[in-house]
């Protein structure tokens, strides 16, 4: 069952999303050669708890940390560690915060230093753009397949691959609610989008092949061919006024205008 949220609930999710946005901005500014992903995790937890929320990821099915930090060929769910970031790496940072019983969830991919390859920059930019292509489709009366296809139809002609083993999801009081939101599909299919839906859209796009596997830690997902992957995510409410992004710092910029 897809749970529709009231305006009050969406406001509460926006408050949780604002904490996530603040954390991601801070962590992105900390990313530099020599810092560890554990350093990033500690700062995220400090900020989330300091804002009166709690880190949604920590303890989720036994997950040990407050963020996911996925480096280079790690697609998602990388566990923060003492591993130091190096010049030329990229790191995907996924963060969730729960406030007043409601979840905000977002992710960014950040370049490390000044030596990121041009083709990897292209991957980062295409993944970010594909997220906004999908958000533009989050309008009452459209279908879920329109949202899902927007990612695939943008990145595949550019030569990138969509990870199909993992997907976005509904979000609210729980981090994972219905519906599932894949990053591929056929337009005009799936349930009709309704006012009050809140979904987390999160393109996971590979420079190489789409195949992935999970490492022995039971969490970290890597590309099978060892090529880089990028990940971006926003929590988005579907309203009569258009899609509203709940995980942006600037609330005034959070409503996507009708084209």
Topology, element by element:
Blueprint: H1 7-30, H2 37-50, E1 54-55, E2 67-71, E3 74-76, E4 90-99, E5 102-111, H3 118-136, H4 144-155, E6 161-162, E7 168-170, E8 177-181, E9 198-201, E10 204-206, E11 212-214, E12 221-223, E13 229-231, E14 234-239, E15 242-245
Shape: globular
Helix content: 25-40%
Uncertain residue ranges: none
Q: Which CATH class applies here? A: Alpha Beta
Computed structural class: alpha+beta
Total helical elements: 4
What portion of residues belong to β-strands? 25-35%
Gross CATH architecture: Alpha-Beta Complex
Q: Give the distance, in angstroms, between the N- and C-terminal Cα atoms.
A: 31 Å
Mean pLDDT across every amino acid position: 96
Biggest sheet, spatial arrangement of strands = 8-7-9-14-15
* Count of beta strands: 15
Describe the main β-sheet briefly.
5 strands, antiparallel
| Domains, number | 1
Order of helices and strands: HHEEEEEHHEEEEEEEEEE
* CATH T-level topology: Creatine Amidinohydrolase
């Amino acid at each position: 069952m897809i749970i529709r949220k009231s305006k009050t609930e969406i406001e509460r999710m926006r408050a949780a999303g604002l904490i996530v946005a603040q954390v991601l901005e801070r962590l992105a500014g900390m990313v530099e050669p020599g810092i560890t992903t554990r350093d990033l995790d500690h700062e995220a937890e400090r900020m989330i708890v300091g804002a009166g929320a709690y880190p949604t990821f920590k303890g989720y099915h036994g997950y040990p940390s407050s963020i996911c930090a996925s480096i280079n060929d790690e697609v998602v769910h990388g566990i923060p560690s003492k591993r130091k970031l190096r010049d030329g790496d990229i790191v995907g940072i996924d963060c969730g915060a729960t406030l007043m019983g409601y979840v905000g969830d977002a992710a960014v991919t950040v370049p490390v230093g000044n030596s990121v390859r041009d083709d990897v920059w292209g991957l980062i930019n295409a993944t970010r753009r594909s997220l906004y292509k999908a958000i533009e489709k989050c309008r009452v009366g459209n279908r879920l397949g329109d949202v899902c296809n927007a990612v695939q139809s943008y990145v595949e002609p550019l030569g990138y691959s969509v990870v199909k083993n993992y997907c976005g999801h509904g979000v609210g009081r729980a981090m994972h609610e219905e519906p599932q939101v894949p990053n591929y599909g056929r337009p005009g299919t799936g349930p009709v989008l309704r006012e009050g839906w809140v979904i987390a859209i999160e393109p996971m796009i590979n420079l190489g092949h789409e195949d992935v596997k999970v490492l022995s830690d039971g969490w970290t997902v890597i590309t099978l061919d060892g090529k880089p992957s990028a990940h971006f995510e926003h929590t988005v409410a579907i309203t009569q006024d258009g899609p509203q992004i709940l995980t942006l710092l600037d609330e005034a910029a959070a409503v996507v205008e009708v084209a």
